[in-house]
What does this fold into?
Amino acid sequence: MKGDADATARRHPLTGSGLLKFVGLTPFAVYVLLFLAIPTVLAVTTGFFDAEGGFTLANISGLFESVVLNAFLSSFGVSAVSAVIGSIVGALVCYALLGTSPDGPLRSVISSGSSVLAQFGGVMLAFTFIAFIGSQGLLTVFLANTFGIDIFANGPWLYQVPGLLLPYVYFQVPLMIITFMPALEGLKSQWAEANATLGGTRFTYWARIAAPVLAPSFFGSLLLLFANAFSSYATAAALISQGSFIVPLQIRAALISETVLGRENMAGALALGMIVVMVIVMWGYSVLQSRTSRWQR
Amino acid sequence: MSRGTSNAVRIGTEPSKLARWIILGIVGLAFMLPLVAMLEFTFREGFAGEHTLSHWTTLFSPESTRTYRSLITGVTNSFLLAAVTVGIVLVILLPTMILVQLQFPKLRRVLEFICIIPITVPAIVLVVGLAPVYAIVVRVFGGSIWTLAFAYGITVLPYAYRAIQSNLDAVDVITLSEAARSLGARWGSVLARVLLPNLRRGILAASFISVAVVLGEFTIASLLNRVNLQTAVLQISQSDPFVAVICALLALAFAFILLLIIGRVGQPRRIKKARRNRSDS
It folds into this structure.
């Protein structure tokens, strides 16, 4: 297929000269260079320089100070827990949607709603949860008036790391629905028929056929959810105005005051740390994804 | 049709009706409650139990234009940024994708890889490197808000790419353009009268998703000290939490409608797919 395209392109030179074709690629190349490549390189290398432009490893060693390590641990914790809950609940919803019409109103509403919460949420979700379980939130007031339960008896946890879990799950489940639904729909009914013909049960179908086929896709989505929570900033920034409990908030503090650990350019080192984690997670995701696409053909 | 469904349930590929509605009911309720709480919050009279319409009426009253000036600036800025970002997608990304599809089949994987990078390099990391870049951008273009769209064009890259590419994959652009060329069409008319009409769906979907992403963007604007919808709403929440929640609710509703339209735009392709699946089974 690719070879064909090559050959036809050579036989019928669609544009004028070969050089002219390459000129057409330059706007995009220049744009990506200026606003993606250069910022990325700057972000991960500034950590190696001090304020005067001299080379230093002080910022990198700052990554191993307990404050920063704790932020990384909190980030890992929130991301892992919200990804696990999000992927299980999301997969259940996908299962429940099997057999509904892909063009029906139920699916359109769920998929649009999922996109909104997964991609648009950010700051808005912080307000959602302040109105829901904030100190004057609907649920908080209801629990206090009806059962006399004070959910903030152990301190204002909504504005600390545990408070991030609920809003994060709130955007992780929709992301799981978006990413996992195609894999679940890729299951072929012939496999279930073959299973039934050979005397298998519903359980053998899901355990011996569907589970192995879906596993790479499920764990791939799990990694994507982890990466999504790990790199998410807006919800946390809107909810937590004081303190830097997770890595993105550490970057905020470093950018605004430039005094994290009393070091200049600490934001660069933190960015490098985040990129390392993101590259590893996304590499795992792409490996699992390539195993998935084999079944979806 | 209903017989086919029960068969699918019996052999285990689909959940039973009861199981489906139990799962969707519980999860749906859990997801609706916070939104209901938001709506209830906007009718609160102070923090006591009474309810009032006053927060909604003040927001839409004529005097509010002065009180919520920053909010209006934020909304206008966000829409301007959305327009410029869509412009970047249409003028820079779209022609490149068509060119690569037609002339550089070997570069397709490279282009895909580049367009996916912004997922691995999240906004909070990118902004660290964007700060020095924008020091230069401000010197060249001045400090007006629209320059932020350069960064947003990168943020929307994965979404816009996916929307346009799925359309490109479904249309045989090479054959189409060769047919048009062999009938004597110039390149301009091949593009305007053959390729763009065929890519209408992908272009529309890419534009809508770009608008949604830009309207929802907070990280870069906030850390580069620019005002957009999201930063303005966060700022207002410190003085008037009710109005902030109203704005959040309206923004979520607007994005929902926008994405519902995307779903409709992308539908004919899905109908075709569904038909293929049906004939398979």
Summary: Chain B touches chain A through 103 residues (CB under 8 Å). Chain B has two domains: 2-59, 70-280.
